[in-house]
Amino acid sequence: MPTKPLYETKLGRAHVANSLPFMAGLEAASVNLAFTSPPYALHFKKEYGNANQRDYVEWFLPFAREVHRLLRDDGSFVIDIGGAWTPGKPTRSLYHFDLLIALVREVGFYLAQEFYWYNPAKLPSPAEWVTVRKIRVKDAVNCLWWLSKTPDPKADNQRVLNEYSPDMRRLVKRGYRAKVRPSGHIITRKFTDRGGSIPSNLLVHGNNDANGRYLELCKLNNIKPHPARFPVQVPAFFIRFLTDSGDLVLDPFAGSNTTGEACEREGRKWISIENHSPYLEASRFRFEGELARLPDRLAEPAPRALQTSLF
After folding, report:
1. pTM of the model
2. Which of 82, 108, 166, 218 has the fewest Cβ atoms nearer than 10 Å?
3. How far is CA 202 from the centre of its chain?
4. Three-state secondary structure along 2-17?
């Protein structure tokens, strides 16, 4: 059953646990969004642990089935997953596409839409193919699979509008004449100022938070930070897009708990699960000032009827 959290805020709780049995103790249809970045199937082992390409789908599907059980009918499951190279060859692995197909065909998810995160700060790798032999370009895009439990998940793109460009602001000011564009799209007189432009499925955010609070405090306290972090803007986008204020967000592979930080910023409840205690312990630095003292009531096991839901 759910364990006592390592720490908590007014909105969320961070737990050191194996996420598979932990999720099994949570109430079905209680989660609005599951957002996570699981260990990728890279061709070399990382210190945080990662399954190999051959076994990755089989390893991940039990977690996905638990997420499917926990999601509400209008809930979503978003997975940040990077690609990988075939060991010893300048060719790409298909493991993340195999995973997507299995999640739809075997688990029962729907593919709502595929997104891509472009990281302009990504270093050129693998060095052998990109910088030594110079026969490939750097891999700087991660896939973000947006899956849903039903064909109609909760979503509102008006919450994630981009700021208008200068040209667009001038166009809105002087008005737009209804016409058919060369592409065949018909622009009608209903064209109005919506306060911003609808974003595309390409998110552009650098992952260079060298001056961020988390890394600064890790350095001051001589603590090694998590080696694979994504920028907080990535989960924040989907939290705004796919949930309402007060909804519950789950991250079963929390790492340094970027998802929890994004939820705090957006006013969502959250549960983060990480099986490596030092990573989650260091993630406290993301919440300095927001952390509440652990209530005394959590020192004793909760009644059985309350153990299935944390909120």
Report:
1. 0.84
2. 166
3. 14
4. CCCCCEECCCEEEEEC
Question: Given this model, what pLDDT does residue 289 score?
Answer: 65
Helix (H) or strand (E) holding 33: strand 31-36
| Superfamily per CATH, domain 7-159+200-289 | Vaccinia Virus protein VP39 (3.40.50.150)
Give pLDDT, residue 209.
Answer: 65
Residues annotated catalytic, as ranges = 37-38, 80
Query: Comparing 92-101, 241-250, 274-283, which segment has the lowest mean pLDDT?
Result: 274-283
Residue ranges of domains in the chain: 7-159+200-289, 161-198
What are the structure tokens assigned to 264, written together?
Answer: 């705090």
Residues 212, 115: Cα–Cα separation, whole Å: 26
With 70 as the cut, is the pLDDT of residue 45 above it?
A: no
pLDDT, mean of residues 212-240:
80
Residue 80 pairs in a beta bridge with 144
* CB 250, CB 271: distance < 8 Å: yes
DSSP character string of 96-135: HHHHHHHIIIII--EEEEEEEEE-TTPPP-SHIIIIIS--
Tokens of 122: 């990504």
